[in-house]
Specification:
35% of the residues lie in helices and 19% in strands. With 354 residues, the chain is of the alpha/beta class. The structure holds 6-O-phosphono-beta-D-fructofuranose.
Length: 354
């Protein structure tokens, strides 16, 4: 018999479309299936520093949130209770307030906690678990770079948004005979760039996992010109490593702009750049993300009921599973440069600049 009566749930790190779908699913199944009380923890673990800011989540509070982007709980990517930053006498100081966080969770009657977050939040969850907190995690990021799970929710929505942008830029690129560069998010992994690039019919895709030269890109642009294709779409992942030939360029600009400038200089073509930015994190989650997020929320509650603390839910193939957070954190899942997806892109003539 489970001894759980009340659980807390919080969202940490950058937001991703589908967070509200996880919250809704967890609240609904905790109440309907297990008759537990659910408390919402605002702004990641920060919400446990000020317990008076927490609030009960009822069926009514999660009604209508499934299609909404963002998170009704709020989030932060700076709230680490083991290295909590505050200012004292005008000086920034860093303290470990994890004991306070654990004791506040107990005072609020939380028997266990669900944390929905990326690698950073999962590392905090692991440390809290090691200090005795009953915690389970749900992996989240638009970057799709967590090794614990085949797919993270939010990724499909980000790819859909980025693909829509590539589609729109296609028509104007073709009309003006321009090289159009589109920079997408993804941190140190090229998943969004590769998927949106293939889905949007990009001609060049630059990802952190494959090194490129500007010369190779310009040779490719010239070959396209040679057979009458006077425009080129270049999708650039924000985390690419710049080649030596670009190291002298002024830093501080988005990499998309730097790549655009370098191509313009060498190819003498007209180039325009779009940096998509946070538009990729916003908006309503796609049906795929809503379903995955719902499955994760339900699985996290089931994991608590089964006593599977210190674990994170994940997708393996078609199935929802759980793995130890300890085995999941600190390892980034990048693209295999010789994998099937890259080979398929090469087979249809996509250039990676290598
Ligand atoms: O990890 C998600 C992500 O959107 C990355 O793709 C991006 O590099 C980063 O977060 C941006 O973070 P912030 O919102 O703090 O600028």
């Amino acid at each position: 018999m489970s001894e759980i009566r009340c659980i807390g749930i919080g969202t940490g790190g950058g937001d991703a479309p589908g967070l509200n779908a996880v919250i809704r699913a967890a609240v609904k199944s905790a109440i309907l299936k297990y008759h537990w009380k659910v408390i919402g923890i605002p702004d990641g673990f920060d919400g446990l520093i000020w317990p008076e800011k927490t609030f009960e989540l009822t069926l009514k509070s999660v009604s209508g949130i499934l299609p909404r982007g963002g998170t009704i709980l709020g989030t932060t990517n700076r709230g680490n209770p083991f290295q909590y930053k505050s200012s004292q006498n005008g000086q920034e100081c860093v303290r470990d307030i994890s004991d306070q966080v654990i004791s506040n969770a107990k005072k609020l009657g939380m028997d266990a906690i669900i944390t929905v977050g990326g690698d950073g939040s999962q590392k905090i969850a692991l440390e809290l678990f090691q200090k005795g907190m009953k915690i389970v995690a749900v992996p989240k990021t638009i970057d799709n770079d967590l090794c614990a799970t085949d797919v993270t929710f939010g990724f499909d929505t980000a790819v859909t948004t980025a693909t829509d942008a590539v589609d729109k830029i296609h028509t104007t690129a073709e009309s003006h005979h321009r090289v159009m560069v589109i920079e997408v998010m993804g941190r140190d992994a090229g998943w969004i760039a590769l998927h949106a690039g293939i889905a949007g019919g990009a001609h060049v895709i630059l990802i952190p996992e494959i090194s490129f030269t500007v010369q190779n890109i310009c040779d490719y642009v010239r070959r396209r010109d040679g057979y009458g294709k006077r425009f080129t779409i270049v999708v650039v992942a924000e985390g690419i490593t710049l080649p030596l030939e670009m190291k002298h360029m002024v830093r501080g600009l988005p990499v998309g702009n730097m790549v655009g400038d370098a191509i313009a200089l060498l190819s003498r073509k007209e180039v325009r750049v779009s940096v998509l930015g946070h538009i990729q994190r916003g908006g309503s989650p796609t049906p795929y993300d809503r379903v995955l997020a719902t499955r994760f929320g339900v699985a996290a509650v089931d994991l608590i009921a089964a006593g599977g603390f210190g674990k994170t839910v994940c997708l393996k193939g078609e199935h929802i599973r759980a793995v130890d957070i300890a085995d999941a954190v600190g390892q980034m899942k990048g693209i295999d440069p010789h994998g099937e997806l890259v080979e398929a892109a090469r087979a249809i003539g996509i250039c990676f600049g290598d």
